[in-house]
Amino acid sequence: MKVVSVNVGLPRPVVWNGRRIMTGIFKAPAAGPVPVRRLNLEGDGQADLSVHGGPDKAVYCYPLEHYPFWRGEQPGLGLDWGAFGENLTTEGWWEDQVHVGDRFRAGSAEVMVTQPRMPCFKLGIRFGSEEFVERFLEAERPGFYLKVLREGEVEAGDPMERIHEDERRVSVLDVVRLYLGRSGEPDLDLLRRAVEVEALPEGWRASFQKRLARAEG
Q1: How buried is 145 (Cβ within 10 angstroms: 0-12 exposed, 13-18 middle, 19+ buried)?
Q2: Residues 49-101: pLDDT tens digits?
Q3: Which of 75, 139, 143, 187 has an alpha carbon 20 to 30 Å from 132's alpha carbon atom?
Q4: Domain residues of the chain, as ranges?
């Protein structure tokens, strides 16, 4: 797995449905090494810190392997690296291969996977369509957030090496599918493992714990 592009952008105002909104969804590739801080990359920022950013969402990764799919669905948009608001465009592993709690070395920084990205209306702003938010969720290509365990620097071309695999092996895609509840009867073994993943933020774990309690009756 490697970093193909490092993307940053500061919040800026846009007009959407007649409202002036601040958003940090627009990212552009950065040249050279970029410092990785506890809360974000240098030169990057989030507009609404009540739902974006924070230690568990310091860095957002998106696999470049998804770009051909979206270019087929969204012809004419260009979709340069960073189009989905990701800080790191990565190559190598998809969301079904990366587990919550896995730790990676990216450049000289050490990071840990915490959760999938759940899209908000600002992704719709980026793609000029309110319907795109639901389509993004349905496609099960969410990307994933990272917590910064050790600050450092990262630049395009750096390897992104998995240095620890979480023993419960709950993938990012597992979390999405549990959230969507599309598989009919819940997978009790997966729910039990999910609530034990310490890296998964408390809100996710509490939700899955309630579902597990109901299922076990």
Answers
A1: buried
A2: 766 779 999 999 999 999 999 999 888 777 999 999 999 999 998 999 999 99
A3: 187
A4: 2-167
- The encoded tokens of residue 128 equal 């000029």
Angle between helical axes of 172-180 and 202-216 (0-180°, round to 10): 60
Sequence letter at residue 109: A
Contact 39, 197 (CB under 8 A): no
Domain 2-167 adopts which CATH fold? M1 Pyruvate Kinase; Domain 3 (2.40.33)
**Closest among 123, 120, 100, 97 to 175, alpha carbons compared:** 100
CA dist., res. 82 & res. 121, Å (int): 17
As given in the structure block, the two tokens for residue 167 are: 């023993």
Q: pTM for this structure? A: 0.93
Name residue 87's amino acid. N
